[in-house]
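Researcher: Going back to the complex we discussed earlier. I've cleaned up the inputs and rechecked each line, so this should be the final set. Can you rerun the prediction on the complete assembly and write out the structure?
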Amino acid sequence: MDRPGPNGISPGPPLSTAPFLYLPLGLVVLAALYVLSRYSFLLFHSLVEIFSIIIACGIFMVAWNARRFGERGFFLFLGLAYLYVAGLDLLHALAYKGMGVFPDQGSNLATQLWLGARYLEALTFLAAPLFFTRRTPIPAVVTAYSLLCAAFLLSVFQWPVFPVCFVEGQGLTGFKVASEYLISGLLLVSTALLIKRRKELAQGVARLLVWSILLTILSEMTLTLYTDVYGLANLVGHYLKLASYFLIYKAIIVFSLVKPYDLLFRDLKLSESRFQIFMDHSPLAAFIKDSQGRYVYANRRFCRMAGLDESPPLERTAAHIWPAEVSGPMVEDDARIISQGGSVGTLMEIPDGDGSREWLIYKFLLTDPVGERMVGGVALDLTERKRIEIALRASEEKFSKAFHASPMWVTISSPGRDRFLEVNDAFLRDLGYRREEIVGRPFGELAIWGRGESSSELAQFRTDLPVKEKEGFFFTRNGRPRQVLYSSERIMVGQEKCLLTVGLDITDRKQAEEQIRQALQEKEVLLKEIHHRVKNNMQVVYSLLGLQAARVQDRQVLAALQESQNRVRSMALIHESLYSSDSLAQFDFQAYVCRLADSLFRVYAPARKDIRFSVELDQVRLGLDQAVSCGLVLNELISNALKHAFPPGVGGELKISGATLNGGMTTLTIKDNGLGMPPQIDPRSTSSFGLSIVSGIVEKQLGGRMALSRDQGTEFTITLDHPDRQKER
Amino acid sequence: MPEIKIMIVEDETLVADHLRLLLEEFGYLVCGSESSGPKALDGIEAERPHLVLMDIRLEGEMDGIEVARRAWEEYGIPTVFLTAYSDHETLDRAVMSNPFGYLVKPVTSEQLKAAVEVALHRA
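Model: Rerun complete. Updated structure for the full complex:
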């Protein structure tokens, strides 16, 4: 916390310069005291003791007066204890040989008192760490030290049972020496405890206390050596005691006065720092104004709110920061709070850069410790929240508009509460209900389900399971069923699991589909009738030709009539194949050719086992027109081959093959390996009726090409374009 | 061998005449040619033919399938159907009546001969 606090307290100058000042001063004092001791040891002793007594009293006074600032009782305990140590030291100084205060006593009394004071000091240091983290129980400590001192003094002066410490002419007793060692041991233990817990003291204080204790130990060791109370050992021992007390002086008094921030006010500073950190990290702007409207405190968020970076606007008023239209209402509020008390909460637009932000400012009356009335306030930036609220409202509005304007059914239902929470206008319009007749009423009371509890739609709405494109029936107010295609999705409305359902009334569409289906069926019946008529008529024609043939004697005429019968039959077979086919536009050409050939074999070569016949036409795709024409062409070419290519005794093979390529071009090949067509016959100019039918149909009607090969029999190759291109011709 | 009598039930006169011509060429006796269901049943009862050559579509309400059923059930006379229909529905109906043959128009003399011979053999 290097930054100066708002109360203006600074940590003070560093103490590292002190040794340069104190060391020569100390040496001068020591030298002066030495000179004094040469003049009068008693004077030297008295001064040293008085000095230590003053320090001990000082420790008490500082600790006592600072006791309310800290939670910890370490210094208060030391202060109280040193008051008693000072008392014993005073008695020791007064009892010193030559002082004449206790005329009947020799040097033993002063030594006993010295020892008592040191015991008390050692016990104090031993117990002091107990009070690092707890309050000092003042009555208990006072009682304990009073009893200890009283017991000690009574054992010295009244009873007297305290062991002899000094014998004139002999020097120190064994008890005295052993006690000094014991005291030193106790002090060493105290030192260890102090070092261990040094972090609980301000920096430097622990170090000075440790040095002070160590010097005391050294002093004790020195004072085990003297035989003459005015001797050198006593002199050095008192020097060391003086130094030890000086360090305690440094630790307690100097640190308490020069560095109160680190010592007595250490906790206060920590508390204030925590407060400062808390306020500066708060998302709330906070401020305090005096009765004149001047800011006396402002946190960082407030500084940013006021556009002041991080410098508090101390001593300034709202009018210095904001324009009158903003600061005016603030000042009015402040005045009202100062005069009437209470609190005020206002929403305000505060300028921010080029725009403004909306703040909720809450102000209230404060009275500071000296009784001055002040205005405290906190402010919350609502801009972002408001923006979100506006966006949310806009989103809700959009959803609401879409919900209600949708031509499809949209509902929100709660399976848990067994009712619709909202339905849109399309739903109500199609089913003929008012909103209040549907929304909020238990599902079981609604008549829209038709079959009531057994309705699968009711079951669907009672689960929270999503469903995709389900067809179902809902019933209008008049009981008419509406067929609906609907989907449901889970949504959360607040904390409630709901179902959003979108449905499309497909009743009209279904009816239209049914009409189309019926029309199609009627058309199929009609088509079936037409086919029947056509085929029946062909049978009539076929029979007519047969009856005519029965009356004809001429063989050529008879053959012509029979060929005509075959042509009628080939056309009838096309109709039959078409009729059996699933598609009117496409049919099984290979099956048709097989039946046609079978029929012609029965007529022209009923017993010819020596003529093999094969068909490979499964890759041929022909349109209806092409198929009828090709049927007639194949009828002629197969008939020709059976009549002329294989005279009795000449067997062979008749093969029909073909394919339709991707581009739609179809090739048909009718090949036999029989006698071969005589070279003088030209299919295009022949007198043969059959061949003239073939060339006429292929080249004129179908717009195709026909090639004839007479190599090892006869081979006709017919090439047809795609039916669409054929039509373009 | 006793003469085999065949009755023709066909509402198209020309077709019936042609069938009669062909059957007579094959050596059968055509004992009647009727154009409606009731007349056909009367003829069947009177003539008791060995076989009926039956068109499915006839004049009047009763169709050939019904006449064939009754001819078989009441007189034990087999039927060969002759029809321009070749759709699955009609075929299925005809099959249900346990026919002895089924010819699709236009029928050649070879087909007719084979179908009649097979039917008579089965009966």
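Model: Worth noting: The CA atoms of residues 187 and 213 of chain A lie 6 Å apart.
Researcher: Good, that matches what I expected from the previous run.
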